[in-house]
Amino acid sequence: MKDQLKKLWEMISFRTLWDQDEEDDWEDFDTRDDYISGSDGRKHAGLMMNPVYIWLIVAALCAVAIAGWQGMSRRHLYTSYKKTASYKGEDISGTSYARLGSDFVKYGSDGVTLVNASNETLWSNAYTMQATAFDQCGKSILIYELQGNQALVADKSGVIGQYQTDLPILKGSVASNGVSAFLLKNDSDVLIRLYSPNGSTLAEVKPTLEQTGQPIALDLSENATRLMVSAAKVGSGTVDAEILFYDFSSASESEEKHVTGKISYTDELFGEVFFADDRTPVAVANDRFIVFFGTKDPKERANVEITGEISSVFHDEDHVGFVCLSDDAANRYELSVYTMRGKQTMDTLFNEGYQSVVFDSGEILLWSQRHMMSYTPGGVKRFDSDFDQKIGLFVKIPGFRRYCILSNSGITRIKAE
Prior knowledge:
The chain has helices at 2-12, 32-37, 43-48, 51-75, 255-258; strands at residues 81-88, 96-100, 103-107, 111-115, 121-126, 132-137, 140-145, 150-155, 158-164, 169-174, 180-186, 189-195, 201-205, 214-220, 226-234, 239-247, 259-265, 270-277, 280-285, 288-293, 299-305, 310-315, 319-325, 333-339, 344-350, 356-360, 363-367, 371-375, 381-386, 393-396, 402-407, 410-416. The chain has 417 residues and is mostly beta strands.
């Protein structure tokens, strides 16, 4: 590219705009006007002396240079950063963080707070929970007490529901309208119950060990009309899996009428299930993931085997990603991404330790307590740097190479360099 730019500059280097200081040099030439106008036949020279033509060439050169810079910039690995803004805070140890639109949720065992990007409190609510768990769908969040009875539902406006269950909570999921579904421990059985934001029971399902096995994971669709459940069932020397689908769009009280599908898998265990969108349920096993389609009696769309032990699963509406343990001696992990039709779009290795991984604004973000990384969807590592504080949350913010870090000490905005 440098050679091409050099040749283009050499072509126009002798052609300059009109210089008034040189006008005296032309006074002895009666043919000056003819030369400029090209009336003596030198039309090509006149065209090349045209300021418009020169500026077009300059503009083209600039466009080529900018395109080249953008291409190199987007493939360049940035290993340092510049702090562009800092907002101090004093969060207690053990505080967890989550993104809620352009704001941030801070929660722990003693309460939840929503702050804006400048770390200003928008609302706060106190509670006491021994061990908290978190789920989010759209602009609704659910905080609940693991092995306890408390649940809190909130959105950007504040808490919209806080209630207690009569049975210990094993697992919870929230829809965008604040409806929540829980796995509840009932002696040796597990119940599935749906609650409205105010704590009233909307529906209850009582799976049996003989018919469906023991539920171990669940997820509500965004509009709370569909429920997906993974259950473990002991077979003949194996632990088998049942994937169950429920439809709660009708007001029927019959549990049988809510069931829309059941798919059995031998010698498999699906520890995680989720809805990528209202029409795309996904189940993740130890060695594969399965994408389903159809609102009534769902069928498999993709069944993809994953090599390597799965360490983390992350997803957005269009993709599902995995971090797996790698067999490569120089790299501990393998990062791969697939479409919801099972096509692999990315596969790369890395060796840095990490604790969390997410899709965020078109990038893949990974971080540990004091280290952060970013990958493009095509697998190009864009950012790789240590941080001088303990990282609670690492997010992408508007602007090229712009990120934000939440820690116990506040909120810091950075630009990768």
